[in-house]
Amino acid sequence: MLFPRLAQLRPWLVHLRAGDWLVMALGCAACVGATVLLWQGDVPDKAIVRAGGKVVAEVSLSTPRFIEVDGPIGKTRIEIQPGRARVASDPGPRQYCVRQGWLTRGGAVAICAPNHVSLTLSGRKNEHDTISY
Amino acid sequence: MTPSVTELAVTADDHRIARLATAAIVLTVAEAAIPLPLPGVKPGLANIVTLIVLSRYGWRDAAWVTLLRVLAGSLLLGQFLAPGFFLSFSGALCSLGALGLAVHLPRRWFGPVSHSVIAAFAHICGQLLIARVWLVPHDGVFYLAPVFFTAALVFGLINGLVASRLLIELDSDPVPPRPPA
Fold first, then answer.
1. Contact A15 B146 (CB under 8 A)
2. How far apart are CA B36 and CA A118, in angstroms?
3. pLDDT in tens, B107-163
4. Which conformational region is residue A77 in: left (phi greater than 0), alpha (psi within -120 to 50 degrees), or beta?
5. Quick one: which of A62, A106, B75, B176 is 20 to 30 A from A20 by CA?
6. Do the interacting molecules here have an ipTM over 0.85?
7. Where are the domains of chain B?
């Protein structure tokens, strides 16, 4: 049987001594530590909005809000939510930056080229210079 | 047949190590048939033999059995001198080093499960190190470390439990089987 019932596992407990539990606890700590350290390094903490190459807004990703940026062909609306951001609407003809959807990783970028607006997420340590799909 | 000019004296120790290494090699080959989702994650059943040898005959025999197993196992699987061989080899060296230290922990509190988990972690660390330095010279290899660590913990525990149980069963057998003289 691949998954024995818990009671069937009891005889195996006699093989575990006090130190074995300690070693396993340290092993668990190593697993959790490695996960936290290696898998959460690229959580973004702020969004940078540029228009015409200049930074027009630099906001933390803690409170939800909208930012409106004026460009040569109209208004780009950027939506900020805790831990993520997106271009909610843009006057560009092909809507690439809108269709990219929510950006969630540090270094992720959405560029609305026709309107000269870009949205960049940055984390504590930037693992990537840029990410595009 | 011409009698051999050189005469190699084969001791009972040699017979015992060869027999145990064979058991380990069989487990290595059997394990190669198990499909596994991720390269680098495998149960390492042959280490059960290493753990038993370590407890019964000491570190020197365990090192012999492990290194013979890595060598012969890779020859049988066609992996000799392939990247997989060097990964196994570096893992084996690291875990033998760790076992050399772990074997001095007080037996009262630290049993085969401790040895197994410690060796499994040392094994994966050695492999990751070789992979980082030689195979994939980029920190990206460490991205999967949490998966490898978890596998080391789980398989280390299971192998340790099996080794511990086999040791008890072997000890209840009053005369350990001796090779024919």
1. no
2. 43
3. 889 999 999 999 999 999 999 999 999 988 887 788 889 999 999 999 999 999 999
4. beta
5. B176
6. no
7. 12-171
